[in-house]
Amino acid sequence: MLKKTSDRRPRSFRRTPSQYIMVNQPEHLVGIGFRCWLAGYDTGDINCWEAGWNQISRALGPARAKPVVTELACWVRTIHAQACRKIQYYPVNCAGFCRDECMAISMIAASQHNACPALRACAFALIGESHIDPVIEASEEFAGVLHDVEINLRIDSIAEIAGILDTGTTRLAN
């Protein structure tokens, strides 16, 4: 009989369902866009924004990508400005998504599927502040622009909030 050993790697390095999101799926585009724009705001490095633009433009084409990236920038800027804590994100070329990135993806999925309680819970968990209305509005605007260019996230992309907050790991609702 084999003895099961514990996974001693930090939680951020353990495999999560978010690592199985395929490249160019709507969830991947939202997550990568969020990561690149947030990294750009944090570092002031335009290469972060360029990396985000290149991935989104490659997936959607420049004409469809332009309104998406414009609204993405507004959404991330609002989150960055409203957050009462440091929003975490993985390096630009990392395969998976961390807890905060999954919260951001979940906000857009919840907005597109009219899951207001989940949207509000994700916004609160992400920014750590009770004044979430500007973040909700920005999320709805971004979700609407994505819908307009026929980019729709799956309903099962809405994070299982209780599981994420209790364990610090990311699980997507079934």
Largest sheet: none
- Shape descriptor reads globular
Mean pLDDT: 84
**Would you count the extended β strands for me?**
0
Low-confidence stretches: 1-20, 169-174
Determine the number of helices (DSSP H or I, runs of at least 4 residues): 7
Strand portion, in percent? Answer: under 5%
Helix-strand sequence: HHHHHHH
Description:
This protein is mainly alpha-helical. It has one domain (20-167). It is 59% helix and 0% strand. Helix 1 packs antiparallel against helix 2, helix 1 crosses helix 3 and helix 4 (99-112) packs across helix 6 (133-148). The radius of gyration is 16 Å and the shape is globular. The chain starts with 25 loop residues before the first helix and ends in a 7-residue tail after the last helix.
Protein topology:
Layout: H1 26-43, H2 46-60, H3 62-82, H4 99-112, H5 116-127, H6 133-148, H7 161-167
Helix pairs in contact: 1-2, 1-3, 1-4, 2-3, 3-6, 4-5, 4-6
